[in-house]
Amino acid sequence: MRFATFSGPPSSGKTSVILRTVSEMRKKSARICVLKFDCLATDDGRLYRENGVDCAVGLAGSLCPDHYFVSNIDDCFDWGTRNGYDLMVSESAGLCNRCSPHIQGCLSICVIDSLMGIGAPKKIGPMLKMADIVVITKGDIVSQAEREIFALKVRQANPRGIVMHINGITGQGAYRLAALLQQAGEPDTLKGAKLRISMPSALCSYCLGETRIGKEKQKGNVRGMDLDQAVTHHEKHEDT
User: Fold this and answer.
1) Which helix (H) or strand (E) holds 141?
2) Element (H or E) spanning 118, and its range?
């Protein structure tokens, strides 16, 4: 069974890209399942099923959605293998720009939209910088110049990845991604596989449910801001 991970910031168009790409692949009678990981609620499972795509939904609740993903993905993969799917893709919640839901040896896709601003690519961590493919959406809404500059910024953030544009409404460009997914690796299992980079550091007292503010309530991985380096508005005027 082929396997690929989809990640990206919220509302970047991950679900639309997957639906358009899967539609191209199903023309060749491929059996496909989507693993939808989210936090508190999602209607995407219903959306996939309405479009004839099998979907399993996992909600992380109070847990970090990417930690929840890693804790469940090997069992999900084994379940997909037993059910005879040709391709399984996971769609992450994408709520943290430090997220890293990509696995060594598995095709990884990051979806990012043109409306985020030209500075966005450098602010996004491993889920963009370590992706094999970066899909840019909503390019039809911006000018050609903005579209090209944004793509350049993406290439600067991820020089090795394939960068492409897909229209999530019309599906334009999805055929190329479908062809690349046909070449995705076919691991026997994900047990023992490794992430491309470690997850964000944990664990702190607030991860464990603490709600009170104060240094005496902080335990675990805690990092303070260096306020001595801050320059106030008043100091700027004094310098000038």
Assistant:
1) none
2) none
- Of 32, 7, 21, 49, the residue nearest 170 (C-alpha): 21
Q: CATH second-level architecture of 2-181? A: 3-Layer(aba) Sandwich (3.40)
DSSP state of 115: G
- Which residues of the chain carry a pLDDT beneath 50? none
Distance (Å, whole) CA 69 – CA 113: 23
| CA gap 68, 73 in Å, rounded | 9
Cα distance between residue 178 and residue 100, in whole Å: 23
Please name the residue that has the structure tokens 């995705």: 184
Domain boundaries, the chain: 2-181
Tokens 């240094």 belong to residue: 215
* Chain segment 177-234, per-residue pLDDT in tens: 999 999 898 999 999 999 888 877 667 777 777 888 888 887 877 777 776 776 655 5
State the residue for tokens 């190329």: 176
